[in-house]
């Protein structure tokens, strides 16, 4: 049976993420959700725009909801592609650009991480640091 | 007067669908709605991601709402096409990719079936098995 | 670590619940959710009104969200009581009348059951049968 | 010009709040919002029910929105009282029971704190600790 992400592990992950955000000079919101997509911890770095809050959470939620990085959907939801409209097919929006990753314990998805605030590459770099910090515990 | 889908028939359809999902090695949510688009029965196969739940229901709902397979709308909702934006034209989202089918009794639509979890082809194969099992009763 | 409710166990619970509903002559919707409040299985008994569908799901969701029977909140949300307005304090409504119960594995809540369709006493009797059938597995 | 709550101060406040929650043996969600009601930081203590997440945030939001403790509204929103229905008068719900407090810098409100998970008295005790820790910085 897979373990759960404790609040201490989540905070430890966010602290590592904040460090990475500063290193990349990004002002971002960083979020961690559990297996069911429910928020464990979120932190908005100073001067991050408030528009980043829900995007970070929805990225983490989307990663947990489908057990895939959010960017995995980008091609397939385009006009003419197989799942056009997926991102708005449910009452709560899914995010299909990069910055959300599932968190694994072995083969099981035990949560998700989402970062919003910078270019997709920076969001993903920060999110990866958080995921690694959580998975290493 | 067209017949109604009983809950026993719906369960029988879902059981056939679960068998097909296992055969195809898909972890999916399978839903059956009535003529009014209202849920009769839904089942989420073990290990299906929770993101599939509402999509399956919205596919079944969409199929009942328009009496068409969900995939029938895909071309016409594309950018530049005649019904661009149809999938978000109402408070509840419609799904315009495959996996939802109406259920007929003769010429009358008596409900809808929706499946979400795998590639569109697998979702449609599973949904077709459910529709057939219901229509054969 | 607590176990998960499989779809087979959920169906077995719903089958026991349908039997109880017939015995009580009630037309109800019966729902089972996982630990995160996400639907595993739902069935609407023949001739149950469609208004019962979401109530049953929201009862199961509320029981999982707070790990309490839904009826536990009834007194405390009344005008003048300590948590007046709790049922509408979040974007998704909570149900505070009877018919929703958490499902336990030992001390851990692993899901919720909700039933809607009859008088509160009947809803609770049916829900209890479902909870017992699931917990006995 | 009033100061802003930095993310470091918010985390420091939440850490003090977690300590208080453990002392009171409560499993709660603790949230801090800025002057605009937008989330700065949130943490869900291990084993806190997921139903507490949005309530904690809505308490902090309500405190910032009206620059009052959430409990200040309780009497006046009762049936027959002057602002009956206030808690549902906007698209986002307000919370009118205790557990939310504004954060001051001198006479200016610079944010809000919300706690959900235990009895109102415990939520308020934890929230007060967070507010003090933030205001002392």
Automatic annotation (TrEMBL), chains A, B, C, D:
Gene3D superfamilies: Haem-degrading domain. InterPro entries: GlcG_carb_metab_protein, PduO/GlcC-like, PduO/GlcC-like_sf. This is DNA polymerase III subunit delta. It comes from Pseudomonas kilonensis. The lineage of its organism: Bacteria, Pseudomonadati, Pseudomonadota, Gammaproteobacteria, Pseudomonadales.
């Amino acid at each position: 049976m897979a373990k759960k992400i404790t609040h201490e592990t989540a905070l430890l992950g966010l602290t590592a993420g904040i460090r990475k955000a500063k290193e990349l000079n990004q002002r971002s919101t960083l979020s961690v959700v559990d297996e069911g997509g429910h928020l464990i911890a979120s932190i908005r770095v100073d001067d991050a725009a408030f528009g980043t809050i829900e995007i970070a959470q929805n990225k983490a939620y989307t990663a947990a909801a489908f057990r895939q990085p959010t960017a995995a959907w980008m091609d397939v939801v385009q006009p003419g592609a197989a799942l056009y409209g997926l991102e708005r097919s449910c009452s709560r929006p899914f995010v299909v650009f990069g910055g959300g990753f599932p968190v694994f314990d072995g083969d099981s998805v035990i949560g998700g991480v989402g970062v919003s605030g910078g270019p997709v590459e920076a969001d993903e770099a920060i999110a990866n640091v958080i995921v690694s910090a959580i998975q290493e515990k």
